[in-house]
Amino acid sequence: MRQKNKYKKFSVWRLLKRIVLISFFSSLLYVLICKWVMPPITITQLSDWISGNGLKRDYISWDEIPANVKLAAIASEDQLFPVHTGFDWDAIQKSIEASKKNSSKTAGAGTSTISQQVAKNVFLWQGEGVSKYIRKIPEVYFTKLIEWIWGKKRILEVYLNVIEMGKGIYGIEAAAQNYYHVSASKLTRSECAQIIACLPNPKLYTVQPMSKYVSWKSRWILKQMNNISDDKEIRILIHL
Predict the structure, then answer these.
(1) Global pTM?
(2) Between residues 89 and 113, which one has the greater pLDDT?
(3) Main-chain dihedrals φ then ψ at residue 165, nearest 5 degrees
(4) Residue from 57, 38, 1 nearest 150 by CA
(5) In 86-215, at which residue ranges do the beta strands (DSSP E only) sit?
(6) What share of the chain is helix, strand, coil (3-state, %, to 5)?
């Protein structure tokens, strides 16, 4: 009987080990493929399509994405993007300290870098509550992988192609066509800021018709774009 139980434990351990190894190598392979090929679909895009919101997207290359869109994204979402290693530890620490003072705040809220957002949007899933905490460990794993394998330029390129920018609208090209009826390359500086302004919740903070939040946030983003446009690392990254 003992020998039988021992064999069962060994079999379960061997199965778990096999699952971990397969998961690791398959995820690594997919990250490598996505270094050169845009993700065919993401869980967020698929769920949006299934829920009836449609799926509008048109992936474009790095060179087709205007510098003002890249600058607006960095100015709004992650001003340390060119220099951090995937995580903004200072912001995380401040968030943890704030959560200790106010238990209604969630530690780490609002501290996601562009790299973390790409890891979540491309390889994982959205969601709050329990699913958010389940997601955290693989999010760290994928964030570090894309930082090591893709590099900043590719991360920002994928981000601006797959991020949700409205109900059923994904990526800057689809957003430009939908909101302003032009290609992304024809967007004005203000239009770039307005689209990026919706990112915290693009279904709630609408670009057209322009919500009060987008109106305010886009003006803030334009000011931030001016403030960081002379930063050496940012200029090198986005070719300003």
Answers:
(1) 0.85
(2) 113
(3) -125, 25
(4) 38
(5) 164-166, 169-170
(6) 65, 5, 35
